[in-house]
Amino acid sequence: MGDRETPLREYLKKFFGFNTFKGTQEEVIQNVLSGGDSFVLMPTGGGKSLCYQLPALLMEGTGIVISPLIALMKNQVDSMRSFSSEDGVAHFLNSSLTKTQIHQVMDDMKSGKTKLLYVAPESLTKEEYVEFLKAVEISFFAIDEAHCISEWGHDFRPEYRRIRPIVELIGRKPIMALTATATPKVQHDIQKNLGISDAIVFKSSFNRENLYYEIRPKTEPEKQIIRFIRDNQGKSGIIYCLSRKKVEELAETLIVNGIKALGYHAGMDTQTRSRNQDLFLMEEVDVIVATIAFGMGIDKPDVRFVIHYDVPKSLEGYYQETGRAGRDGGEGNCLTFYSYKDIQKLEKFMQGKPVAEQEIGRQLLMETVSYAESSVCRRRQLLHYFGEKYKHDNCENCDNCNNPKVQFEGKEFVVMALETILTVKGKFKTEYFANFLTGSLNAEIKTYGHQHMDIFGQGSDKDDKFWMAVIRQCLINHFIYKEIENYGLLVVTDLGKSFIEKPYSFMLTKDHDYGSLQDINIARSGGTGAVDPELFSILKDIRKQIAKKNNLPPFVIFQDPSLEDMAIHYPISIEELANMSGVGMGKAKRYGKEFAALIGKYVEEKEIDRPQDMVVKSIVNKSGLKVSIILSIDRQVPLDSIAQSKGLKMNELLKEIEAIVNSGTKINIDYYINQVVDEDHQEDIYLYFKEDAETESLEDAIDELGEDEYSEEEIRLIRLKFISEMGN
Fold first, then answer.
1. CATH number of the domain that 18 lies in?
2. Of the candidates 517, 546, 579, which is a domain's last residue?
3. pLDDT tens, 288-347?
4. Of the candidates 203, 232, 264, which is a domain's last residue?
5. Which of 546, 550, 552, 578 is nearest to 565 (CA)?
6. What is the mean pLDDT of residues 377-396?
7. Are residues 40 and 171 both part of a single domain?
8. What is the number of structural domains in the chain?
9. Do 603 and 484 share a structural domain?
10. H helices within 232-333, ranges in order?
């Protein structure tokens, strides 16, 4: 396809319209053209795909790209075709194709039209494809998302480990492994597995200067997220959660709080996922709440924030997901909510997996913990994790640099930690040395008999968390390293040994203590969460007047907990009123006007400093259970059948329906009541609640009506009917 001597930049301009290469792209392409193997480490947005697209157009035969994601393949093929007048220039082979389409791909390849073929690793193992690929000319193999090969990578896929034998079977050609995130350990694994230990390694810097990194304690995260999004109105963002359930709940909460948001996870059908993704790309929607399935290969350059609602399972995952912010070099805020409880939850999920996999998972999690709890520059720590040295002490673009923590002289602690690692014979992990230094006698220490050493417990005036932090800062300063083959075992470096001989001033920083934040409740009103007694009493009076006017018992208008909530939060609009416990928009619109006006006047007269802290709306259908109960009632499914299908006792189901009705949702269960409650009983109980009842109390109703004659279930059913009809 032309003279090889022509400068590569001319081809770049001709085929792709760019004037210059980015980073190491040109060197990678030269290496492929000259038949060498390459390992390409290029962060998200660095231009990895061009490294195989351009050489494919210039070489004889077809370049094979092995990629794990069907959606990604389609995007890449479309973009490749847009640079050429010939559709056959790029194809993909995966499970989504029909027989006719597969024949078309094969014909185009035989005729030499196809320069690039994307294949899923699963398709590559099919005998018919292997035989076909043996018969056509192949220019090179590119393995995209190569971290999937390594068990230490954040997205390990066993089928990726079968790539090499199949490549040998088809016929060895130059191999290019590409990834956006690989620690030295993962890189070593990939090269070993693919048999490309001699490959030239092309590493771009992992430093994304425009990204701001911040870890926040996970206290009322929904409230913090809504506040953050409102402060960044109209900007695009992604919020990652670990479970599908949390994705749906959080997306729903954002929507009812006036934020244009949608969910995205693997449990949705393909059509919904594609639609939601397109709405985000077209900026019809500002925020996508997603599991990690979202974002790979999405080329949206102006994502302005990435929020992790849950801590990611590994730093590679974190780096790749935060890397989707600010790809255009503009603003990119990366916020993560951290609670050690989430880490313990993730550890529980690992139980039942093979021991080796659990061990790896735990190590990766511990790296994440050390990053989250650390008070060292975030950027410096991330780059160190990927084997890159950051030359500055302060990046001025992370929470730890912008709000420095208290520092203290740590020379003696560093020496003590390093000497302990050298003196204890055998190599162990961080936790082992932290326990040894504090003198914690656990089973492992007993096994080795190390409790008898003179230095056992020499650091017992500090806790294990302190020593973990000291060891972490020794790692960052290259005084110790973790073995690659037996990952996690600590070894003192020559630099560490010379520090022991000639110690110099070494400042340590105090870590954040996240533990206590779990117990903090943000006060939601003028400094205190207590009910304002004067306002509460005024609200009870107005409730009485409205009840009288409507000829209804007061509890049908609003129950006491709702009035208490109003006397804490001082809502002055219908929207704010709908946020109150047990109110909901239906009730707020029906009865709320006078309450809001009265509270507004009260606030003004008393000069009350209203809490500006957003009260997050809780949604009636916050749990999927409530939604499905409402839908079943709409379809007139008998209540006993609903209870059975949900695995609930009748009593539990009635409790759920009471919560639905009390928060203002209208339901109609006449179809069921007419089957199970005698007509006279219906009238008697209804009349009692309409005319005699002073409260909604079930006990009072049973006393008044007589438990011999009326069952508790009957009374609860009619009370539901009454509150739904009269109150909502």
1. 3.40.50.300
2. 517
3. 999 876 655 566 778 899 999 999 988 988 998 998 898 877 889 999 998 867 876 787
4. 203
5. 578
6. 89
7. yes
8. 5
9. no
10. 244-256, 270-281, 315-322
- Compute the Cα dihedral for 696, 699, 705, 708 and give only its sign: positive
Q: What pLDDT is attached to residue 210?
A: 92
CATH of the domain at 492: 1.10.10.10
Q: Are residues 141 and 186 in the same domain?
A: yes
Specify the pLDDT at position 5: 44
**Tokens encoding 299:** 């080329």
Q: What is the largest CA-CA distance in the chain?
A: 101
Residue 721 token pair: 């009917």
Rounded distance between C-alpha atoms, residue 32 and residue 30, angstroms: 6
**Confidence category of residue 157, pLDDT binned at 50, 70, 90:** confident
Q: 10 Å Cβ neighbour count for 682?
A: 17
Among residues 42, 401, 325, the alpha carbon closest in space to that of 392 is found at 401
Going from the C-alpha of 353 to that of each of 31, 189, 356, 360, the distances in angstroms are 41, 21, 8, 11
Residue 244: helix, strand or coil by DSSP? helix
Q: How much is the pLDDT for 68? A: 78
Q: Residue 709 belongs to a domain with what CATH number?
A: 1.10.10.1390
Closest by Cα among 566, 722, 727, 583 to 663: 583
Q: How far apart are CA 370 and CA 393, in angstroms?
A: 18
- Other CB atoms within a 10 A radius of the CB of residue 314 amount to 23
Does 379 reside within a domain?
Answer: no
Task: Answer whether residue 105 shows pLDDT above 50.
Answer: yes
Judge whether 121 and 162 are in contact, CB under 8 Å: yes
Position 660 scores a pLDDT of: 84
* DSSP H or E run through 408: strand 407-409
Report yes or no: 512 and 213 within 8 Å, Cβ to Cβ.
Answer: no
Q: How does pLDDT run across 393-415, given as a tens digit for each residue?
A: 889 999 999 887 777 899 999 99
What's the confidence (pLDDT) of residue 36? 93
691 pLDDT above the threshold of 50: yes
Give the separation between CA 200 and CA 599, rounded to whole angstroms. Answer: 71
Task: Quickly list H helices, 161-243.
Answer: 163-170, 184-194, 221-231
* Same domain as 598, residue 626: no
Measured at the alpha carbon of residue 67, what is the angle toward residues 136 and 146, in degrees to the nearest 5?
110
**Angstrom distance (rounded) from CA 584 to CA 569:** 15
Give the residue among 201, 224, 91, 214 at the shortest CA–CA distance from 146: 201
How far is the C-alpha of 5 from the C-alpha of 324, rounded, in Å? 37
636 and 585 within one domain: no
66 and 116 together in one domain: yes
Band of residue 177 on the pLDDT scale cut at 50, 70, 90: very high
- Domain extent, residue 35, equals 8-203
Whether residue 366 lies inside any domain: the answer is: no
Q: Are residues 605 and 631 in the same domain?
A: no
Within 8 A by CB and 6+ apart from 190, the residues are: 39, 146, 147, 149, 150, 177, 179, 182
CB-based contact 229:307 (threshold 8 Å): no
Question: Is the residue at 332 inside a domain?
Answer: yes
76, 175: one domain: yes
Strand partners, 213: 334, 398
SS3 content of the chain, % helix, strand, coil (to 5): 50, 10, 35
Q: What are phi and psi of 377, to 5 degrees?
A: -50, 125
Q: pTM to 2 decimals?
A: 0.55
Indicate the pLDDT class of residue 484, thresholds 50, 70 and 90.
low
Q: Is residue 3 part of a domain?
A: no
